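2.7 Reproducibility. Because tokenized structures are sensitive to small changes in the input, we list the exact sequence used for D-2-hydroxyglutarate dehydrogenase, mitochondrial, including any N-terminal residues retained from the expression construct. No trimming or masking was applied before prediction.
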Amino acid sequence: MAGIFQRSLRLRTALRHLSPQSPLSWAVTGRHTPLDLHCPFLPSTSWQFAACSRKLHTGADRPSPAAAPDRLPFSRITQEDLAFFRKILPGRAVTDPDLLESSNVDWLKSVKGSSELLLRPETTEEVSQILKYCNSRNLAVNPQGGNTGLVGGSVPVYDEIILSTALMNNILTFDSISGILTCQAGCVLENLSLYLEDRDYIMPLDLGAKGSCHIGGNVATNAGGLRLLRYGSLRGTVLGLEVVLADGRVLDCLVTLRKDNTGYDLKQLFIGSEGTLGVITSVSILCPRKPKSVNVVFLGCETFEQLLKTFQLSRGMLGEILSAFEFLDSECMRLLNTHLKLRNPISDCPFYVVIETSGSDSTHDGEKLHHFLEEAMTSSLVTDGTVATEDSKIKALWSMRERVTEALTHDGFTYKYDISLPVERIYQLVTDMREHLGDRAKSVVGYGHVGDGNLHLNVTSPAKDPALLAAIEPFVYEWTASCNGSISAEHGLGLKKRNYIYYSKPSQAVALMGNIKAMLDPKGILNPYKTLPDDLK
Ligand SMILES: O=C(O)CC[C@@H](O)C(=O)O
Ligand SMILES: [Zn+2]
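Resulting structure tokens (single pass, no recycling of outputs):
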């Protein structure tokens, strides 16, 4: 390491703060932490036409996506209903408006319901009794986990009964040989992580919202997060689910097997269904071993093209130890500085990258990282950087990426877009949006999961601004569809994005989703106004 450090000093693009000690010191205690052929938004080069060849699934024939849905004809809660809930959930049927307030509003404070009843079951049997009753009485239900969702899926729209999983927070079993954990849906992600770390394992997912989000909510929204590049999506790591159906039947698919090809994989229907098909009450999940060696580097790149080349290089040179490749742009950095007083750990650059390696041999991992950084520096892909060698610094570097969402909330009203694109296109959308909006927006920022081709495009304004929204949408969705992208990579559709589903799914697929919904929840009581578009209702 001394060699690379001295050589780096001779380079104009020297990486600062590389450990001058032996590669062994790199081992850190770890952060246990279609377009017809006219695409008006893209420069008309021939390869872009090739990428923009899919037909848009949307058009003037669709309902206005922005229109608020009317309240559907569900029953209203009566005194008899309240008496029933108080009987089956003594002290856990909450009607106090002060206590209900926070459950009626989403984390972004952008959607507010007017529910008058919050139910806090502790067991699957209680959830079953609640849903059986609500189904018979035609009462709408809003299942709620940690209420950290970003698309208005986790709060009522009108007076739906809120069914919280907060008290269903028991770990059921953990098999230390297979690494399979089973737990109730209301376990907070961070608590599960801490439990597993004591046993030399980790959760296969990690999110900025880990301190509040529930595993049931994570599964119901198929949350992605920071480790997806390494451990894949919940569709692969969730082995089994217990789900209560709309009529109260309990579907026990809580298997703890790696392999099970007996018929249709029903759990997949509930993963990412946002509580519209059933209420997830327990989860079994395959957990990876805790890596013995974790390194985090924070790098600066002059252009997005160089950032992409750095990504390619990291895949080739870090191989199996690469566990995260995340980015933020200089506008994100400005918001982190201004609103959260977080200091840029390196010199100012247009783009920043957080790379994490996780492995089992610190010497081996340190050498690989050393060679990668040397190559990235000498080929001028990165202009500055720092390496974390201790836990507190690793956390500090990660917070530069994890806290962008929080910084945005202090910048004004935020319009959020969670887009999947071919990775080489992701930043072009930010550039085009900036140009398109001009000075109508306060800030237009881009950050996200480069490794997953997932861009978080956020636009802020001093206050809610319908004219600005009309300039952003449907521009952003048409742009995305023109590149065969997805309008929701990992946040789901919830209330806010449901009517844009046709930009990413053909009408046949949406109609089939409607059939599945009608079969599992014929009265439509589960999380109404969410996920599926208005024209299916
Ligand atoms: O706030 C957002 O737009 C993204 C939130 C989250 O998915 C992240 O990756 O930080
Ligand atoms: Zn994300």
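Residues 171-286 form a domain with the Uridine Diphospho-n-acetylenolpyruvylglucosamine Reductase; domain 3 fold (CATH 3.30.465.10).
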